[in-house]
Each structure stands twice: as structure tokens, then as C-alpha cells.
């Protein structure tokens, strides 16, 4: 092949590549924010996005005294808040049985526990009785106790409207923050707050694998922190 023919061939390939790339961009579009990682092919829709109103309501819980509670975990152990507050920070993870968002968020909370569990107490709070809590722990390998909250008393007291809410309580028994869901930014913030409160290095909990936008879980019934139904 002559030099002239080689130049023509290379130019043709370049034009073809450019056309193909332009077509791919037109089909693929611009990169979209990462969605929630859910299971069984069930995807959370826009109704699960954390709203500005949810954010404002959660922010109003900060610096309030944490509600006291008594509950039973999946093994039948009684957990009393008064025996925990004052000793170390406490993390409450609110769970709704059968909620895909609770399932997809669980590994991130487990990683937070692995990083800070030696100096902070982690507790799940599920909307069911002890048998439901036990099944959740067995199905998900949750590394911390899960409290039974069949009447949603704890969820109501902490104004957790949906599952995947997380409350952080300091040693003085004061709510540091209530997060209305999970995302890359929220998980990074939780890790940073726990690092400050425990004195441990800030841990990498794989937050980049989480949704870019903040997602909350399925709502608890009306009357639980004023949350919606459906």
C-alpha cells in the first residue's frame, strides 16, 4: 500500500471512530448520579430521595437530649439507654423489615461498625418483634444488636420517618445528628463525626459505592415522625 493509500485509510478509520463515538454519546447521554444499590432487581425511585423538608426536620433534632429507651434485642437481651449514654457514643440505625433500601444500606453501616465499634455502640432498630429482629440479623449478618420496635416507639421518639435513618448520640446523651437516609456524602460525614467522637482515624467505609444522591428507605406508618405512607 502506498503512503497516500495509508493516509486515506487512517483518515477513514478516524472519521468512523469519531462518528461511532458521537453516536455512543448520543445514546448513553451524560453520566447520571449513581442510584441506590438495592437487591432482587428492585430499584428505589425518586419518591425515596431525601427531600429538603426531611433534611430540615432532621437537622432540628441536633443538639437535643436523646430520648431514653428500653428495648429487647434479637437474642432477648434487655437494652437500656441509661446504661449506655455517658460511656461512649451511640449509633442507632433504623430498619424497616422487607425494605430494599435498608438491605442495600446495611453493608455500609456494618463497615462503620467494623471501624468504630470498639469505641461506639451500634444498635439497629427494626419495625417488628424479636423474631423479626432475629431473622434480620441472620439474613444480613448484622454485626451489632438489633432492637425490636414493633410499636415504632423508638422511631417515633427519634422522628425517624423512614428506614435508613441514622442517629448519632454523644457521651452526654445529646443527639449529634440525625441523617434522613444514606449517600456517599452522608456516609463520609458519619465517619468523620465518629472519628471525632472516638479519637479513631477516619475510616474508608467504601462510601463511593453508595448513591451519589441521598436516598431514604421505605416510610414508616403515619404518625411516626410525621412521615408519609406508601
Architecture overview:
The chain is globular. It is built from 6 helices and 7 strands, in the order ααβββαβαβαββα. It folds into 2 domains: 1-31; 46-209, Glutaredoxin (3-Layer(aba) Sandwich), CATH 3.40.30. Mean pLDDT is 82; it is low at 6-34, 37-44 and 225-230. The strands form 2 sheets. It has a 5-stranded mixed β-sheet with strand order 5-4-3-6-7. It has a two-stranded antiparallel ribbon with strand order 1-2. The protein has 230 residues and is of the alpha/beta class.
List the helices and strands and how they pair.
Elements: H1 3-28, H2 52-59, E1 70-72, E2 78-80, E3 90-95, H3 100-116, E4 121-126, H4 130-140, E5 146-148, H5 153-157, E6 166-169, E7 175-179, H6 184-198
Parallel strand pairs: 3-4, 4-5
Antiparallel strand pairs: 1-2, 3-6, 6-7
What percentage of residues falls in helices of 4 or more residues?
A: 25-40%
- Number of structurally distinct domains: 2
CATH top level of the largest domain?
Alpha Beta
The CATH architecture name of the largest domain reads: 3-Layer(aba) Sandwich
* Main sheet summary: 5 strands, mixed
**Cross-sheet strand order for the largest sheet:** 5-4-3-6-7
Give me the count of strands.
7
The helix/strand class is alpha/beta
Low-confidence runs: 6-34, 37-44, 225-230
DSSP helical segment count: 6
| Overall average residue pLDDT | 82
Ends: how far apart? 69 Å
Amino acid at each position: 500500500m502506498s503512503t497516500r493509500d495509508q493516509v486515506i485509510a487512517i483518515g477513514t478509520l478516524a472519521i468512523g471512530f469519531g462518528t461511532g463515538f458521537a453516536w455512543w454519546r448520543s445514546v448513553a447521554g451524560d453520566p447520571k448520579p449513581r442510584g441506590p444499590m438495592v437487591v432482587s432487581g428492585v430499584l428505589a425511585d425518586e419518591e425515596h430521595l431525601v427531600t429538603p423538608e426531611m433534611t430540615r426536620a432532621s437537622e432540628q433534632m441536633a443538639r437535643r437530649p436523646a430520648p431514653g429507651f428500653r428495648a429487647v434485642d434479637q437474642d432477648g437481651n434487655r437494652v437500656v439507654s441509661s446504661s449506655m449514654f455517658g460511656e461512649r457514643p451511640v449509633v442507632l440505625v433504623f430498619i424497616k423489615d422487607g425494605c430494599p433500601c435498608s438491605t442495600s444500606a446495611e453493608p455500609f453501616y456494618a463497615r462503620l461498625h467494623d471501624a468504630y465499634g470498639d469505641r461506639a455502640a451500634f444498635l439497629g432498630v427494626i419495625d417488628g418483634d424479636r423474631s423479626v429482629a432475629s431473622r434480620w440479623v441472620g439474613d444480613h449478618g448484622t454485626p451489632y444488636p438489633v432492637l425490636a420496635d414493633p410499636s415504632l416507639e423508638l422511631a417515633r421518639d427519634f422522628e425517624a420517618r423512614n428506614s435508613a435513618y441514622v442517629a448519632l448520640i454523644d457521651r452526654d446523651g445529646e443527639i449529634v445528628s440525625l441523617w434522613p437516609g444514606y449517600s456517599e456524602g452522608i456516609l463520609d460525614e458519619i465517619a468523620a463525626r465518629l472519628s471525632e467522637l472516638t479519637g479513631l482515624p477516619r475510616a474508608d467505609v467504601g462510601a463511593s459505592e453508595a448513591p451519589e444522591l441521598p436516598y431514604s428507605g421505605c416510610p414508616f406508618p403515619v404518625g411516626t415522625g410525621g412521615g408519609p405512607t406508601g
